[in-house]
Specification:
The chain has about 190 residues and is mainly alpha-helical. It has seven helices and three strands. It has two domains: about 45 residues, no CATH class; about 130 residues, no CATH class. The model has no long low-confidence stretch (mean pLDDT about 90).
């Protein structure tokens, strides 16, 4: 048996456990047959559809995770009220647009987590995320005000910093925070 085939058939405990939990949640009850079929199905799925390996040099920071969740929750609430106010108006004058965000981190995981965080907030959605350029293209529901594009860029870079505070390496976090500070200073100079 070739080495590649052997590696593909290897037991991936965490993946199988996660897929088994999803299987049990879908069935809605726990018994021996459901548990065993979930384990077998989880193993088969992990062999037939293997996940690619990725490098992760960051660390999980519990305080950063809590701050990230708080930021997500507050953005969800504020954006939901904002969209609800649009639905209650008689006339709606929107300025939708697409905004380019150049990310600081070179990690696939950080790019995906930042894109997910930004897309979860109502009013914005990631329409493209080229991997080799480390960019996000966001469709924004309403770009209101003269500094709207710059504010959306700052919000997305703030989301990247929040992800890095929760899961990133210290070096990437420092670079991202410096980039965010620099962008804020540029916006203040332009506004003055």
């Amino acid at each position: 048996m070739r080495l590649r085939t052997r590696a593909r058939l290897r037991w991936q405990g965490r993946t199988v456990a996660a897929l088994t939990i999803v299987w049990l949640l879908l069935w809605g009850h726990l018994n021996l047959v459901t548990l065993l079929s979930g384990i077998v199905l989880g193993y088969l799925v992990s062999v037939v559809f293997p996940l690619p390996a990725f490098l992760y040099d960051g660390k999980v920071r519990p305080i950063g995770v809590l701050r990230l969740l708080w930021q997500l929750f507050s953005h969800l609430v504020l954006a939901s009220f904002d969209l609800a106010s649009y639905s209650l108006r008689r006339t709606v004058q929107m300025r939708p647009g697409v905004v380019r965000i150049d990310l600081t981190s070179h990690s696939d995981l950080v790019q995906v987590m930042t894109a997910a965080l930004v897309s979860l907030v109502p009013g914005t959605i990631v329409v493209d995320a080229p991997r080799h350029e480390r960019r996000l293209y966001l469709h924004v529901f309403d770009l209101k005000g003269p500094d709207a594009v710059a504010n959306e860029v700052l919000d997305a870079l703030g989301a990247e910093v929040a992800v890095l505070r929760a899961f990133g390496s210290s070096a990437e976090l420092e670079r991202a925070e410096a980039n965010l500070r620099e962008r804020r200073l540029e916006l203040r100079k332009e506004s003055a």
